[in-house]
Amino acid sequence: MSGISREAFQAAADRIRTWKRPLLLSHTQPDGDAVGSLMALRHFFREMGIDATALLFDPLHDRNAFLDAPDTFPVLGADLSRDVLDEYDGVVILDTCTYSQLEPIADWLRSSSVAKLAVDHHRTRDDLADDYLIDESAAANCLILYEWARIVGWAIDCETAVALFAGIAMDTGWFRHSNTDHRALGAAAELVKLGVNANHLAQKLFQRESAGRVRLLGTAIATLQFIAGGFVAMMTLTREAMVAADATQADTEDIVNEPLRISAVRASILLTEANDGVVRVSFRSKTPLDGADASVDLDVSVVAQTFGGGGHVRAAGARVTGSMSDVQERIVRHFEELLANA
Ligand SMILES: [Mn+2]
Known about the structure:
It is a single chain. By secondary structure, this protein is an alpha/beta fold. It folds into two domains: about 5-205, Alpha-Beta Complex (inorganic pyrophosphatase (n-terminal core)), CATH 3.90.1640.10; about 210-340, Diaminopimelate Epimerase, Chain A, domain 1 (Roll). The chain is about 35% helix and about 15% strand. The chain has eleven helices and eleven strands. The strands form two sheets. Strands 6-7-8-9-11-10 form a six-stranded mixed sheet, sandwiched between helices. It has a five-stranded parallel sheet with strand order 2-1-3-4-5. Strand 1 (about 20-25), helix 2 (about 30-45) and strand 2 (about 55) form a beta-alpha-beta unit. Helix 2 runs antiparallel to helix 5 (about 160-170). The site of manganese (II) ion (MN) has 6 residues, from loops.
């Protein structure tokens, strides 16, 4: 069952149907779920005879260019000037509800009185819209969009099915994470019926990486250390390491999951040094299974919030101001205290 009522889906559809020039936004560093959401909702608007603009803040990374026409997303500043933002009569914010993840356009969002709908499955929420479709139990934002389309009758063509499947697959770690449930798998099965080739998509998503990204994985793993009694793994990527591996910020996606392969590790942290005196911190944790495993269960969304970020129980992040060593020290201290009695 969806966490959003049929009535709420219908009311939101009736509302956006009246817009003539919608603007679709998602978070910075867009992942498969963000890109899939932008792509799918733009298609649903097209179904209603409305031409929506799906705006990116940065050019799409190769990794997320799994769609037939990835270049149809204008990039703020390069393809679309800030001056035209006021010409839009409605905004849909997808897969995030925080200004910090919409930073390049946050000022405009705060000051503009344009109608705003947010569709999201995250816990952390700023009061940034006047209408919401929120379902924290949805494995992916693309799952909410799939269910929305099913309820209000928007047609899902093959390309849109691929976009929705990609979002669900990426947010569930290709159906391995704790959010993999019957809704996610049921939607995936329906999307395969609509033409998704899961094998081809998996190859596009996982087996077309740059040499830099694979090299970066090695660099990160070389820094692996264990803290808080060995329950927590930590890795760091300095700016120098990023340059040496010829890698970009987007190349770091998923690296944080790797230490979770280790049996004793209950949580994993990746610290990546950004250019502006900020360290990006990614957190992941594992669901405790029966037995000894059950002793440590870390809700990393709470940890991330302590550092000014947010996310989910098993996947969260924060941007922390400070030097690498300073931020690292604070994170280590936090986990040592958190697990002092584990
Ligand atoms: Mn998502």
